[in-house]
Amino acid sequence: MTLNLWHSIIGGRSCCFVQLCKFKSAWCIYATIAVLCSIIPLYAEAASSFDEDDGPYQGKYLGKINSYHHQVSGDVYAVNEFTFLFVGFNYDGNGADTFFWAGASNRPGPQGFIVPDEYGKTNILDRYHNKDFTLSLPDRKKITEVKWLAVYDLNNQNNFGDVYIPEEFEPPQPQVGGTFSKRSHNVSSGAIEILDSKTIRIPDFTYDGKGKRTFFWTGVGAQPSSRGSKIPDEMGYLDPIRPYSKETITLELPGDKTIFDIDWISIYDLADNENYGHVLIADNLNVPPSLVQITPYEFSLPNCRQLHKNLQVSWEVFGPQITLQLSGQVDKDDYMSFGLSGSDTSSQMIGGDVVVAYLDDIRGYSIDYNITSLAPCVQVLGQNKGVCRDDVVGGLDSFQLNTYSRKDGINTLTFRRTLISSDSGDKEIRLDRSNYVIWALGKLDTNYEPAFHTYYPKSDVLIDFNTTEPVNDCFSFTKHVDAPIQTWERIKILDPTIRTFNAYLGPSGGLKGYQGWTGHVSSGLAWYLNGYMIPELFMKRGLTYVFKVRGGNNPHSPDNYHPLVITDEPRGGYDRLSDAKQSEIRVLAGVEFTRRGRPKPTAAGPLCISRYPIGYDRRLDDNFPSFKKFNRSLVTDCPPEEPAILEITPNITWPDTVYYNSFTHANMGWKINIIDNFNNVKNSAKSVLQGLRSFSTMTFVTIVIVMMIRF
User: What does the alpha-carbon distance between residue 692 and residue 334 come to, in Å, rounded to a whole number?
Assistant: First the structure.
């Protein structure tokens, strides 16, 4: 057995040693030991390399933790210059005063420093069981500045386990690559930056947007070809890419794909099989691993289409029915929508027939909707128009829910309907040709109705539901921790001399605008007062204020009929509420009641609205650094008509906070602070500012006093 083991280690070259050692001569044994001593390290290195490659890339391998006490074990990788990745880490938690400990001495000892745990805290370590996490060295210390990392007990100066950093170790770090070749359609860029194993930043990227079906495209081989796959754009879309002009964008490779799996990235047109420009990816790049969470897609149906980085649809046709499954990486209060276009020649929302799928705390829902306008469902002259449930507009809910689940942040709902519905308002799912489809992701409002969509396609989406062979271009969901979006600067109008407000409509401005400021879902439109989107107002009791309202006075329009109202309720849409809900709200201005008790708006003026320029993509709203720059990009259209006048005089009976909003649609306005004295507000703001200015000094003095007491 020993001879066979040696032979398996050192290969056929050991044949002569095996034969000679049968005579058990001393020189033979010494020679064999010498060979083994020279080869076993190579074998160990090969085994280590094999372990590294057998699974997802996790960084540069440092080694297994040397275990001495308390069941310490695990593998350690260098993620970047400052960060370690622990994989399968174990520690029984029974040390008295134990920390992660690093230093530059030859071996672990009292000369070192505490490395904060995975939560950034320097608490005594608890028990770990087969846990994966990262540790970052404090004070921007680099891995190359230390020689070891240990699990160390300061109380008895005992080393429970350690790993050493080799000399001349080069930790992973972002790498600079080439530039996009300038072949056609003005494609160009600066030198790309490979930030980690899945993330590529492209500075100064330019493309004229005039290709037919052009995508970010990647694959293997010496040159780009049609044998590749799409890369989602910087917003996660898989549509043909838009024009770019010297923009810096960041792309993430889809699913479990990494830069080690590709040879090039191209701007590639699938219609003409033409490469407009590409950049090559070097081999064996020493880059940080991507720490995004990868969740494999799971579907039980034979066909799957990736609609967006965060949305998939799969299906199966059986007889006169089709079974559909929507899977989306969405928040708990999000909806997923998918269905047939309102046009037979393009993907169009208006006229669409869709399912809206979501989960609440109890169960899942797949509800049939009809889209007659891009507005919430409202009554127009006795008829419901907008994004309305089929059963509200006289139709039938044609979808039958089968299964639903939420797992690892992914909602999955399966449902079925007939290809030709008995509801005349439903569109037929054709099997003799491809179908133009539409989809959307967005937030649910407080009534579990779909609010204005956050993600939606800007180009045509075609699906052939009757394929002879299964089709599948879906990939695993990926998710990373995004930095919170910084909203635009909030606007407050507290000038006591301003008593007149010109009120008109404009777009709500993405996550940096209405939604970011209020925390409410958006209807797509918002009130603009004196040129500002939903400013917070301050009004003094006893003074008279005037709103000149231009929010639309055509009750036939579900999109642009917005009388202004003031109530004590923050969301608005008073006319959409039930009688019971209306009875709970105090209407302060903008509504009078008929003899039958029905509400009638009094401040419906002509429509004045700021719109996007023709051809603008509103999905880029959050690219604007400020509301001022966003507002300058809009085009305002106001007819030469007199506005409606809403005059108010807050009195002692008014609550301290009221809200201006739309009578017909929710979530378009904001708050009015009712005050007794402007001086109190100014003094309060001044004291807050002074407090902020003195905060640093006070904090420093406090820290000094605490340190003096402690030591």
Answer: 37
pLDDT in tens, 483-511: 788 999 999 999 999 999 999 999 999 99
Taking Cα atoms as reference points, which of 362, 371, 341, 518 lies closest to residue 435? 341
What are 418's two structure tokens? Answer: 């007939």
Q: What is the pLDDT of residues 286-305, one digit of tens each?
A: 999 998 889 987 778 999 99
CA distances to 225, 508, 524 from 630, rounded to whole Å, are 39, 11, 15
- The residue-averaged pLDDT of 443-455 equals 90
E strand or H helix that includes residue 435? strand 435-444
**Nearest C-alpha neighbor of 572 from the set 323, 376, 416:** 376
| For the chain, percent of residues with pLDDT exceeding 90 | 77
Chain-wide mean pLDDT for the chain?
88
Report residue 80 as tokens: 């970047």
Helix, strand, coil % over all residues of the chain, rounded to 5: 15, 40, 45
For β-strands 113-115 and 98-103, DSSP reports them as antiparallel
Residue 540 tokens, joined = 């003094």
Burial label for 526, CB within 10 Å (0-12, 13-18, 19+), is buried
HEC-encoded secondary structure of 676-699: CCHHHHHHHHHHHHHHHHHHHHHH
Confirm if 700 and 607 have CB atoms less than 8 A apart.
no
364-371 and 387-389 beta bridge pairing? antiparallel
Q: What angle do CA 623, 627, 629 make, to 5 degrees?
A: 70
275 burial (CB, 10 Å; 0-12 / 13-18 / 19+) is buried
CA gap 165, 44 in Å, rounded: 17
Nearest to 203, CA basis, from 256, 259, 246: 246
Q: What is the pLDDT of residue 21?
A: 40
pLDDT of residue 299: 75
Q: Phi and psi dihedrals of 123, rounded to 5?
A: -80, 160
For residues 568 and 625, the answer to whether their CB atoms sit within 8 Å is no
Q: What is the pLDDT of residues 306-340, one digit of tens each?
A: 999 999 999 999 999 999 999 999 999 999 999 99
> pTM for the full model?
0.81
